[in-house]
């Protein structure tokens, strides 16, 4: 994989070649040329996971801007006179871990008459960055429309905001977008206290935002907060159209309830995203409390990720029904509940709880060590028949996985296929299933296959659904050896490790690498299966099959930065 520096240099080289090819562009009016530059600066195609990095994006934008400066005197004149090209104010370390404020100062000087957007990475290793941010917001806070602050220090974020709050006390400050990310919270394993006895784990609530932040939030239309908590008291979200809360430990359940109550003031809200939010509670109410359900008339999208089952239920019960789309990004925490620390996917109580959730889009990623994930997919599709879109990420595509996408229609006591056996067992456990999802969109990407004959089952899958769009990304990259080593550890499970999970099994025979195929062979088999559909084929979208090429569904969907 190329480094950021190599990729940026490659982009510069392509840009110079493009300049030679379109030399007549110098004859265009300045306004049109400036608009072309703006489009070129921000046209970033996400093809690698590392491109989700905000620092990568900002550096690439500024590399392109400065590349335009060096093409010719005509372009240099247009770039320097076009203040709209300089609205992004970058405050971050350089790749060599050095810090300089020149780029930010030039933006502040050249973006005259335009609202500014701050992208800041204060760091404990570079105290000068925090000082510069505080100084910039103190002097120019009234000029900013967008504030993005990402730091491994909660104090740095609070100090930066405090300077802006102070400015707002005496000057009109109108922030339209506010994104705050405390990076120490990202990726940390958050565990709830053990249910039913034992020594409880000490919880540390997410650090709070500074006092007075509610004065900034009043004008905010887009709010994204990761790793830092908001005190609901005094908050009003009357202007809010989009909110994302991520990686939060809110403490008592009442804090989460109060936060949802505040959302009732968001009559303009269109997008609600809740990711990895943990509350301490011994009981969730069976029904929403007096102020619920809240009405959000303009809501279009609800995105839920890495929430325990109790939280999922409460959130969906707390919002009045509407025409919005609900997306569930499934993780292991989705099986956790107060009543049972962790359900298995075959538990009837668990399946009944799921059947009460109205989910439209299900995102499902196979994690290292999961050996029976096709069963989980089947149970979820049967428990939540409202699902219309299914995304499978990093799967080992075989006949069992494809069979899991088809409802059990056999009436006999047994089925011939191995997959039919576990379907029959499920029927014995749940004699009155709510139905089976009728998919209109199916996406399989960053996946691999060792049995090309299994791909010929695709038409059978499509025949049981109303597929309008099928996305396929199956490649030769294989992690099966690592997968099996993780799924079948040599050491037996210790009784003190808590509930058993799918990753603990008796060691299998010595692992033998399955057959592999090149991309051309895989594509040929997919085309063959596609051709057998004749005129009934839905729209086909081709995705990459390489796990390193595209960001995972979790990483892409839950990333806090959206420049």
- Weakly predicted, low-confidence segments: 186-202, 411-424, 486-507, 551-563
- Supply the CATH class of the domain at 344-411 and 418-552: Alpha Beta
The Cα radius of gyration reads 26 Å
Ends apart, CA distance between termini: 24 Å
Provide the CATH architecture of the domain at 344-411 and 418-552.
Answer: Alpha-Beta Horseshoe
Helical residue percent? 25-40%
**Category by helix and strand content:** alpha/beta
Number of strands: 14
- Here the CATH topology of the domain at 344-411 and 418-552 equals Leucine-rich repeat, LRR (right-handed beta-alpha superhelix)
Strand content: 15-25%
Largest sheet, in brief, is: 14 strands, parallel
- The coarse overall form would be globular
User: Could you report the average pLDDT, rounded to the nearest whole number?
Assistant: 76
Major β-sheet strand ordering: 1-2-3-4-5-6-7-8-9-10-11-12-13-14
What's the total helix number? 18
Question: Which structural traits does this protein have?
Answer:
about 575 residues, globular, 14-stranded parallel sheet, alpha/beta, 18 helices
Structure description:
The chain has 563 residues and is an alpha/beta fold. Among the domains are: 1-83, no CATH class; 344-411 and 418-552, Leucine-rich repeat, LRR (right-handed beta-alpha superhelix) (Alpha-Beta Horseshoe), CATH 3.80.10. Helices cover 34% and strands 16% of the residues. The chain has a 14-stranded parallel sheet. Strand 6 (242-252), helix 9 and strand 7 form a beta-alpha-beta unit. Helix 2 runs antiparallel to helix 3 and helix 6 runs parallel beside helix 7. Mean pLDDT is 76; it is low at 186-202, 411-424, 486-507 and 551-563.
